[in-house]
Amino acid sequence: MLTMPVPDEDTIRRRSAIAAALRRIVPGEGVIEAPVEMRAFETDGLTAYRQMPLVVVLPETTAQVAAVLEYAHENGIKVVPRGAGTSLSGGALPLADGILLGMAKFNRVLEVDYANRCAVVQPGVTNLAITKAVEHKGFYYAPDPSSQIACTIGGNVAENSGGVHCLKYGLTANNVLGLEMVLVTGEVIRLGGKHLDSEGYDLLGVMTGSEGLLGVVTEVTVRILQKPETARAVLVGFPTSEDAGQCVADVISAGIIPGGMEMMDRPAIHAAEDFVHADYPLDVEALLIVELDGPQVEVDHLIERVSEIARANNSTTLRISTSEEERLLFWAGRKAAFPAVGRISPDYICMDGTIPRKRLPEVLQGMAELSRLHRLRVANVFHAGDGNLHPLILFDANDPDELDRAEKFGADILRLCVKVGGVLTGEHGVGIEKRDLMPEMFSEGDLAQQMRVKCAFDDKGLLNPGKVFPTLHRCAELGRMHVKGGTLPFADIPRF
């Protein structure tokens, strides 16, 4: 089982005083301390782990966020930022001795600037709400996680979220232009903006994907795009997952960059079809959804080329959307795959790793072998075009042995991803789920350098501690010389 830092008992004893101080900063109903009311915040999307927070605070203004962080910094109190709580890696899991800083009330679209192709929004605005705010003018926000109806843009920034269209249009990092953020000291800073390039170090890039360890985002400027002239989807079934994986590799190697390219295996296909009734073929082992967009003549040409590649890889079924409604129905099944799988298993863990596309057939075969080894079913849903895998490990959390096997199964999948040249996460973040696997990918020196970045922003280690880094160091420890055999290394060098 994953563990968290040992709670500070002195902080817990000061709970009432801390709540009272927070009420002076955020009056009214902005502070929650009753256990029954805090229960809604005890977990996030990684529901196998639960922990009640010390206290919950729900600010409404940047000034309130700054005051909360300044108070926490001065008094040595940990803070866990939280958006909609949809994190699948335990990134928003509370701490028993920490303030849970909920950003849900920051839910306004502040400005839409069509001339500069951007929108300024608060972090509690949902991903889908950005598109809804601009679609009447023919625009949309490109990154579209499956949880887009619920997940917030602040959480998307924290995890560098992607979605089915990130293959062509990029992840959150490629679509965020600027941030307003509050440092742990309470200082408010701005990074980037409506301008295309920023001077100096790419701190905007550092913040995107930082998982709440460096600061709290209070405003986001995002890029909006005009909807393409034409968008059509191809639904292709294959007799094996390996055939589908090879088709993905062949499409990309042919120089075709679809708007989206997603893959599901048999368990995911059947679950999605039972849930959404998207008319998916049920006699195939794998299903690809390939969307082509752009000028109509280009789309027609690319559909023909993709169809040829699919047939060369033994496809058994191939349907091309003939209307916008049918295209959206194709995608509805894919976007509902996660909740659909929830109907066929008491619990599941949604993993997230990324591999080189050409290794997809090999990894699929490896996951099938791991499924037999750990005696647990797995349903696979992939952002196939960019190699981002989302295996869903099915288990029963009421059975401690199954939970243990599910965790080991997931760890083995991620080790396999790293072994073939991939990475531990594509868009869900490290959180607590992958924290102890970081040494599989990074050396001790690598992790120390990453920790130094955190220390530059958070000198006391108060922001979201226990996440990402497998060993929780104090910042001062990183500069210490290590004694071995009773002597310092290079003892002859003068030290001051």
TrEMBL record:
Cofactor(s) this protein cannot do without: FAD
SUPFAM superfamilies: FAD-binding/transporter-associated domain-like, FAD-linked oxidases, C-terminal domain
A Pfam family: FAD_binding_4
UniProt xrefs under InterPro entries: FAD-bd_oxidored_4_C, FAD-bd_PCMH, FAD-bd_PCMH-like_sf, FAD-bd_PCMH_sub2, FAD-linked_Oxase-like_C, FAD-linked_OxidoTrans_Type4, Oxid_FAD_bind_N, Vanillyl_alc_oxidase_C-sub2
Keyword Plastid listed: no
UniProt keywords, alphabetically: FAD, Flavoprotein, Oxidoreductase
Ranges of residues in domain FAD-binding PCMH-type: 49-227
A GO molecular function held by the record: FAD binding
Gene3D superfamilies (alphabetical): 3.30.465.10, 3.30.70.2740, Vanillyl-alcohol Oxidase, Chain A, domain 4 (1.10.45.10)
PANTHER family on file: GLYCOLATE OXIDASE SUBUNIT GLCD (PTHR42934)
UniProt-recorded name of the protein: FAD-binding oxidoreductase
